Amino acid sequence: MPTEFISVLSLLVVAVISTWCFKRINLPPILAYLFAGIIVGPSILNLFDHIEEMHVLADIGIVFLLFTLGLEFSLPKLKAMRHLVFGLGLGQMLLTTLVAASIAYLLGFSISAALVIGGIIGLSSTAIVIKQTTEMGTLNTPRSQLAVSILLFQDIAVVPFLILIPLVNSPSDTSVALLVVIACVKGVVVITSLMLIGKWVLPKLFREIANTRTDELFVLTTLTVVLMAAGFTYAMGLSLALGAFIAGMMLGESQYKYQLESDIRPFQDILMGLFFVTVGMRLELAVVFEYAGIIIIGLIAMLALKILIVRFCAMIVNTNANDAWAAAFKVCQMGEFSFILASLAVTHTILDPTTASILVSIGILSMTLTPYLVANSVRFAHFFAPDDTANIINNAQVLDVERSGHVIILGFARVGQSTARMLDMEKISYVAVDIDPIRVQESQMANEPVIYGDVSNKAILQSVNVDSAASVIITFDHIPKVTQCIQCIRSFNPTIPIIVRTRKDYALEALYNCGATQVVPELQEGVLMLVSQVYHYSGVPIARILKRIRNERKGKYDHLHGFYPGETTELNYESADKLQFMHAINLNRSAWAVGRTIAACDLVKYGVHVRKIKRGNDVIQDPALTEVLHDNDILVISGKPRRVERAERHLLDGH
């Protein structure tokens, strides 16, 4: 068996085990990938003789990440953010680079080495920040928009460093200034060309591909377009990521945006995981142990420096202090492109290998801390600006609603607005809270009682008098945020009715357990409304229809749980513990369960229960526990997929 195959297989095994272990203790997969990289890297197992060979696939992961980021930020949106990208982003990158370079120069580094160190420290991790904020569902919040504007400018700022580092120590008759001008002109031409192609060619191309109705062709075309755009910018001396970002930004305005996102995501996630593995491989434990003091001091100094500079730049551009602090904690780490610059600087003898290893160690440690900093950025922001949000909300508007006995609507999108209109019909006063600034502005202009704010923030809930409200309606469907919100409401008002809307019933029990009074799953309620119409047209009396619906709600939609899976049923790591499958089992003569009662089969311990038994031409619905199972019975059970599999083995084999 080839050595390379064994190395790759070992890497995959370590990555799978690490990810599973980290997931079990509720740590982000990013940390698992970094840990796996350290294990298989030169400091421990040393599975790969040439780590650099792995970076090609890892760089493609970065390309796909920037493409999906481009899909989220269309050209009109980027124009709207230009004052942040070229104000806050430029200020952060320039100040951080100059301050870090000055410190490095005072420590004895040459001017060129100091500037490279400043650039390395100035960059942040687009991959980690975007991935985690997307998973948390906070990408479109103002604090995340500030962070993204900084990251966007940093991705642009990488280009001059990639151009200048090879020129510093290379003999050339052409002046550096002229080379920079040529590179800038080249960049403008390349970006303009890509934008024109993206606007006029790509939509027509994808329309033709979509008309073929071939999923494989659509995916293949997407991959080809992304890699061609990245390859074009790379061939012109710019970064791979820049071309992918521009291609995504152009397609973000098309009707194929969401399909493109779903096609790219599997490739992006796998290759991004590989990227973080290669980052972990770069960590040399010998260097860490030898220079541990310097690395720790450098890590603390870098984090503090970048946090303070982002906050200072945000103050200059007149940004909300609370959001500025939160954004600062999101982008205070070192970035993935920092490792590329460090490697390039060593290749061109600007930095010695030891200095580069120390910088890489600081970068990896900062990346390891990033998931915690991102997850807790709002809490840290409230520590530094505790009354900021509340003051802004209170000073921004005076709500013309009753301050007691009112209904609070958390989330003012489609469901929230429809609820508000129905409340208006009965003259029930309400106040809504939403995190989308554009939606809030539009609503306020229409004289709607809506305020801007984070619904899990206690200051926001206090400002809408949650302690004296009649009820709270939570309309958004992000379960971790909803549970956090419910707990926060209960700390103010333990008895207030809390009605939660969710798309499916995956988290029904969890929401009830954390304090929800009523949970309304759209899927199940839609089925009830559909069936009630069928009952009506079938001649069932209205009283019996209402009783059926009432009993289903009271029983938490028990008869609506479970379905027979098919070829198109999607089953992944997240949904495996949420879905309820229905499964038919044929009990032949040799089956262990034949001759035993349902109670004796002890299916309760497997978390499944018997829906019905088909015995010849008869069907026994919801059979009693005392029912004896016969030869050739078809037993229909329901439960979570893995539990259904175990229960079937138990019924057939007795194991």
Number of strands: 10
Task: Detail the poorly predicted runs.
Answer: 387-402
In percent terms, what proportion of residues is strand? 5-15%
The biggest sheet amounts to:
6 strands, parallel
Secondary structure category = alpha/beta
Overall form:
globular
Can you give a write-up of this model?
This protein is an alpha/beta fold. It is 63% helix and 8% strand. It is built from 29 helices and ten strands. The strands form two sheets. Strands 3-2-1-4-5-6 form a six-stranded parallel sheet, sandwiched between helices. It has a four-stranded antiparallel sheet with strand order 7-10-8-9. Helix 8 (142-168) crosses helix 16, helix 11 crosses helix 12 and helix 17 (336-347) packs antiparallel against helix 18. The radius of gyration is 29 Å and the shape is globular.
Pick out its properties:
655 residues, alpha/beta, Na+/H+ antiporter like fold, Rossmann fold, six-stranded parallel β-sheet, four-stranded antiparallel β-sheet, 10 strands, 63% helix
Secondary-structure blueprint of this entry?
Elements: H1 3-24, H2 29-40, H3 55-72, H4 75-80, H5 82-106, H6 111-122, H7 126-136, H8 142-168, H9 176-200, H10 202-211, H11 215-235, H12 240-251, H13 257-281, H14 285-290, H15 292-316, H16 321-330, H17 336-347, H18 353-375, H19 377-384, H20 388-396, E1 407-410, H21 414-425, E2 430-434, H22 437-445, E3 450-452, H23 458-463, E4 471-474, H24 479-492, E5 498-502, H25 508-513, E6 518-521, H26 522-537, H27 542-554, E7 581-587, H28 598-601, E8 609-615, E9 618-621, E10 633-639, H29 641-653
Parallel strand pairs: 1-2, 1-4, 2-3, 4-5, 5-6
Antiparallel strand pairs: 7-10, 8-9, 8-10
